[in-house]
Amino acid sequence: MLACGERLARVVHVLAELGIADLVADGTNSVIDLAAKSGSHTDSLYRVLRCAASVGIFREEPQQTFQLTPLACGLLSSHPNSVLPLVKYNNLDVTRRPYNEMLHSVRTGEPVLERTFGIPFYQYLREEPEIGAFFERFMMHWSRRMVHGDFKDLTFPGHSTLVDIGGSDGYFLANLLSRQPELRGFLIDLPNVVANAPTVLREHGVLDRATLVPGNFFEVPLPTGCDIYLIKAVLHNWSDEMALALLRRVRRTIGDTDARLTIIDQVLPPPNQLSHGRLLDMDMLVLFGGRERTLEEWTRMLESAGFQLNNRPGHGWALLECLPGRFDG
Description:
Layout: H1 5-18, H2 20-25, H3 31-38, H4 42-53, E1 59-61, E2 65-67, H5 70-73, H6 84-90, H7 93-96, H8 102-108, H9 113-117, H10 121-127, H11 129-147, E3 161-165, H12 171-179, E4 184-189, H13 191-194, H14 197-203, E5 210-214, E6 228-232, H15 240-254, E7 260-268, H16 276-288, E8 293-294, H17 295-304, E9 307-309, E10 316-324
Parallel strand pairs: 3-4, 3-6, 4-5, 6-7, 7-8
Antiparallel strand pairs: 1-2, 7-10, 9-10
Helix pairs in contact: 1-4, 3-4, 10-11
């Protein structure tokens, strides 16, 4: 099965593109009708569906009819934990083709996306606006999952100003501000990304408490005199060198104040445990040149940047609370 995993991924992608789960949920169960409504070849669609059913994605019933299963529900567009955006992201040319040269990454330690396309990932997104727009929607999707998942109750009591570094369209920040009427926020991200933020912030009724800071967070001056600096799902995209550079920027901005840094990022579990983070780490290796990190690696990096970890985070997407410590520069 491990050797055939790529074939199964293609099966899932086809079912996602055709919207088969939504059709079944709407009452279309026979392969003949599913093929007609999805514009597919009947026998070929049947072969794909029976393959999916063999691993629990849909359930085959008599007369070539199919029903949803818990796994198939993840392919529903309306499901709160839908994997449709992830399936489509995994099948973009820019995320799929570099894996053909993964061996180069393992031998050299270098990401191969630039070797494949001739330009780095984020430049590719700028030069391919349609793909860039999808990627931003994908990032927004995961931001919303975080808001309504493990971090749905996150607040910062006793604090008045928060800086969301790399905060996309502001959905996460908007929800934080909604929970804390006394809180004001700054949102930093690229100009084309924060351009979407006013609508999101206005919908949550918090536009008057948010300040937009368009720019590259490695270059734009970070707001000073704030209580909390938040970096969410950003640092894993970057090498240790670049992640450390961003952390040190924040530490210099904090200076000798008692402001805090909060990081939301992947923390890898102990060895020999299956985790989404370890699979995501392959993207970091091949595409971005970033990495997922263990708690020990996070602790060392934070100390190098002048921070002390102040909590014991869990595994997976976790909250790391950091206090300013000794800093030489």
